[in-house]
Specification:
384 residues, isoprene biosynthesis, transmembrane, binds manganese (II) ion, mainly alpha, 2 domains, Farnesyl Diphosphate Synthase, 0% strand, EC 2.5.1.32, binds ligand LST6JFWI, single chain, geranylgeranyl diphosphate synthase activity, transmembrane helix
Length: 384
């Protein structure tokens, strides 16, 4: 498919800018296609996020602004999907079905989490998941070799279209419906694209501040996208700002865990998502990562990294308790399941250079009732 084809010349276009995939559509190709099937648009640069790389708790301004905009939107729409949408129901049903299939195929843990949600919320999360996955796939997927800054600029233009009610394809249409039903802000979506730009420019992180910024862009943003879907408990006495921060921390914890699980895999792509100054503090360097030898120094270094990832999960926990009661169980489940990957790195005696830590299905299923008990905890039982 031609990377430059546009609305006007796209043969797949049906009425109202919908694009249906051709008959030989497959789930996998739909994801990979994102890298090439992007309409050419004149892109407008957005201002960079206010995040500073110096000093970690610098998401405050950003969160403040998002909370302010969110509360304006809540006045207009409510959190219950009450704003109308103009797509034919059958079309949307199929669009969401495709999102669901992709989520089930690519992200078993998240998919399991969505099984515990109300229908409206699960559909919204599938649509967001698919957009995030396609965005990541631009950088990491089979078409990543075609990636250039103009591809990301056009993907961003396509995001504007989604928020302006002009979806380009069926998967985008699901997200367009979601952003019309829930008070979602475009900023975290834009920031995720910025994270992908960063990933193409950079493959080393001098210190944790730099790594944190990357983690915010690619994962903290998912927390910001999810809270308006999950909803905050009406009886919560914590500020929205605190809860949004906790959501960012869950994303950070998840991404740090991803990084620690995938050190060996990332190294084979020439990437080291570990703070260089901290490696040095333990007498380690890239050379040790590439040699794939698990030494005592490596184990000690990993213990520190795991401790930090757990810290972010702990910070997220107070926020999880403040979510709407119908959303607490899936969030607790995904939090606990992700955290268990860290246990698994420990159980592999810190060998994340030649082994990939995972959590087995039985363990996953056994976690659900425990998460359910945590989810019963009332927001008022947590000290602000
Ligand atoms: C107050 C409070 C605690 C609220 C909860 C908020 C909440 C639900 C937060 C969710 C945070 C979350 C799930 C973050 C995902 C982080 C993540 C895994 C990011 C991945 C980035 C790139 O990593 P990498 O390339 O190293 O990884 P791969 O090897 O390619 O996998 C991402 C791939 C970015 C794209 C993110 C996704 C595809 C995941 C999106 C997930 C959802 C929308 C599901 C959230 C739903 C539930 C039930 C948790
Ligand atoms: Mn990826």
């Amino acid at each position: 498919m031609d990377a430059t084809f546009c609305y006007a010349t796209n043969p797949c276009i049906k009425a109202r800018n919908y694009v249906f995939f051709s008959k030989n559509y497959t789930k996998t190709s739909a994801i990979a296609e994102a890298a090439i099937a992007i309409p050419k648009r004149r892109s407008k640069r957005i201002p960079q996020t206010e995040l500073s790389v110096h000093g970690i708790p610098s998401t405050d301004l950003l969160v403040q602004e998002i909370v302010r905009r969110q509360s304006q939107k809540n006045n207009l729409t409510g959190l219950d999907g009450s704003r109308g949408c103009s797509y034919p129901p059958m079309f949307l049903e199929e669009a969401y079905e495709r999102c669901r299939d992709i989520c089930a195929e690519y992200a078993k843990t998240f998919y399991l989490g969505t099984m515990l949600m109300t229908e409206e919320r699960q559909k919204a999360i599938w649509a967001i998941y698919v957009w995030c996955r396609r965005t990541d796939e631009l950088v990491d997927g089979p078409n990543a070799v075609h990636l250039s800054s103009s591809v990301l600029d056009r993907w961003e233009g396509r995001l504007d279209d989604i928020f302006n009610g002009r979806p380009y394809d069926m998967l985008d249409a699901a997200l367009t419906d979601t952003v019309q039903k829930f008070p979602l802000d475009i900023k975290p979506f834009k920031d995720m694209i910025e994270g992908m730009r960063m990933d193409t420019r950079k493959n080393r992180y001098a210190n944790f501040e730099e790594l944190y910024l990357y983690c915010y862009y690619v994962a903290g943003t998912v927390g910001l996208m999810s809270v308006p879907i999950m909803g905050i408990a009406p009886e919560s006495s914590l500020s929205s700002q605190t809860i949004y921060n906790a959501a960012i921390y869950l994303g950070i914890g998840n991404q740090l865990t991803n990084i620690l699980r995938d050190v060996g895999e990332d190294a084979s792509r020439g990437r080291v998502y570990l703070p260089q100054n901290e490696l040095a503090k333990f007498g380690l360097s890239d050379k040790d990562v590439f040699s794939r030898k698990v030494t005592d120094r490596w184990r000690e270094f990993m213990k520190e990294q795991i401790r930090r990832a757990r810290y972010y999960f702990d910070q997220a926990e107070n926020g999880a308790t403040q979510l709407h009661k119908a959303s607490r169980w899936p969030v607790w489940s995904s939090l606990m399941l992700y955290k268990m990957i860290l246990d698994s790195v420990e159980n592999n005696d810190y060998d994340n250079l030649t082994k990939k830590a995972y959590v087995g299905r039985t363990k996953k299923l056994m976690t659900l009732p425990v998460a359910y008990t945590r989810a019963l905890m009332n927001p008022s039982t947590v000290c602000p």
